[in-house]
Specification:
444 residues, alpha+beta, 4-stranded mixed beta sheet, 15 strands
């Protein structure tokens, strides 16, 4: 195991400290490793500090330095690191690394992006094979073992009754709005929208083509979107049709979340524990479908990734100069298509927020699931432990098949959660399917 840190700014590795945006952490990292390290707990900080670290600049013309991380601290949406180089390992030219880049899991395109990856390769073993010696002291100093996720300490429920009791005793409701989300596999799912998901090797699946996905679905199914007034309305409809978007579904009904925590997609998830996540936030922070902030964030979907990358969030820049950037001016153009009187003064930080939005009940599924959404801004990352605006707690769910049977008695099942005739037909057929064991029981 080793850390690979890449930056675009020449000279940054000479300072002994650096700040990464959280959205760039664990990019190009194996999915299982990324999941194990997703929470910046003290234990995970120790793991990251125990790995040797490669410091590199974007492109292929600079030297690699080998060193170690001395401290890792959260700074709002950034991670501040302090580091030092190993004096016993001289700088290594990229030309020397290039022949073994694939063996080190360094992908050609990732050297053109500022990011922090964690690679499942033995760095020193690979270096020694190309003639770069590493002394015994250095070999003993660093850990090369694969990280494992910390054991969960969340409360566990095995029945609907136990779940309801747990929900009713939560203190999050005091003057707050509370929402829920269910995952059938607590070891696999993260609090991120489908647009931001990556493959097993840590490569983004959809993010770079968001504006294409948005337009293609509008082109091919334009009649379905004619009644939509705002871009957010269209994103909600697209989410309903399973297109990857920057929306994350949540619900105000805890039993709906429990259903999704138990409804598995396959045998692997059947064997894993599920989870219900509880979100609590001040009511004033909940936005509605016509919110100006929601319009700013939602219309990012129409902006090409190259233009999103050009937006400069320099903390020292003034709002009016921020709004004069070409990419921001184009975003303003999209916003004014739905809000002609919108003033050209986007607050920079609004574009990077995660906000809770109540959309229109534009289809039966949203109504039946008491749906709302978390809308993710530009490169926004939800801290799995919660944020200052959105508190998070968790309930582990086991005995899932039995809970689904109990939920069915409360009329929460595939037919009511997904209220379409094909789902109702599937549910009815399954419910009244001939069961030989039951027939035997009746006859005897």
């Amino acid at each position: 195991m080793y850390n690979l840190l890449v930056t675009a700014r020449e000279g940054d590795w000479d300072k002994g400290h650096y700040e990464f945006d959280k959205s760039r952490i664990l990019e190009y990292t194996n999915e299982k490793i990324a999941f194990a390290l997703k929470d910046l707990t003290s234990s995970n900080i120790d793991k990251l500090k125990s790995y040797p670290t490669v410091f590199a600049y974007e492109g292929e013309n600079s030297d690699f330095r080998i060193g170690s991380l001395q401290s890792i601290k959260e700074r709002g949406r950034n991670i501040l690191i302090e580091f030092e180089f190993r004096e016993d390992i001289p700088p290594i030219s990229f030309e020397k690394i290039k022949p073994i880049a694939s063996l080190l899991d360094i992908r050609s395109w990732e050297m053109n992006r500022t990011h922090w990856a964690v690679k499942e390769e033995n760095l020193f073993e690979r270096l020694q094979k190309i003639g770069i010696s590493v002394n015994e002291t250095t070999l003993k100093k660093f850990n090369q073992g694969r990280p494992t996720a910390d054991k969960s300490k969340t409360p566990k429920v095995t029945t609907v009754q136990g779940f309801i009791a747990k929900v009713l005793t939560l203190k999050e409701r005091n003057g707050n709005e509370v929402f829920y989300r269910g995952h059938p596999n607590k070891k696999k799912y993260k609090l991120e929208p489908s647009l931001f998901r990556r493959d097993e090797d840590g490569n983004y699946l959809y993010k770079d083509n968001e504006h294409v996905l948005y337009r293609e679905l509008l082109v091919s199914n334009s009649a379905d979107f004619q009644s939509d007034v705002y871009t957010l309305d269209s994103l909600v409809r697209m989410q309903h049709y399973s297109l990857p978007t920057r929306l994350l579904d949540i619900t105000s009904n805890p039993l709906i979340a429990l259903y999704f925590a138990c409804k598995s997609a396959g045998k692997e998830e059947d064997e894993e524990e599920g989870e219900v996540i509880v979100f609590s936030m001040n009511r004033k922070d909940v936005k509605y479908f016509d919110s100006d902030v929601a319009s700013c964030v939602a219309n990012l979907a129409r902006l090409p990734q190259t233009e999103k990358n050009e937006i400069d969030f320099d903390e020292d820049s003034l709002e009016d100069s921020f709004n004069k950037q070409p990419a921001v001016k184009r975003l303003l153009h999209f916003i004014r298509e739905e809000k002609p009187f919108f003033e050209p003064n986007i607050i920079p930080n609004d574009l990077r927020k995660i906000i809770c939005v109540k959309g229109k009940q534009s289809n039966d599924r949203i109504s039946s699931q008491s749906g709302a959404f978390l809308l993710f801004g530009l490169d926004a990352v939800f801290d799995e432990k919660g944020t200052s605006e959105i508190k998070v707690s968790r309930i582990t769910v086991s005995n899932k098949n039995s809970i689904l049977e109990e939920l069915d008695l409360l009329n929460i099942n595939e037919s009511t959660v997904f209220p379409y005739i094909e789902n109702s037909a599937k549910y009815v057929a399954h419910k009244f399917k001939f069961d030989k064991s039951l027939q035997y029981a009746v006859e005897n």
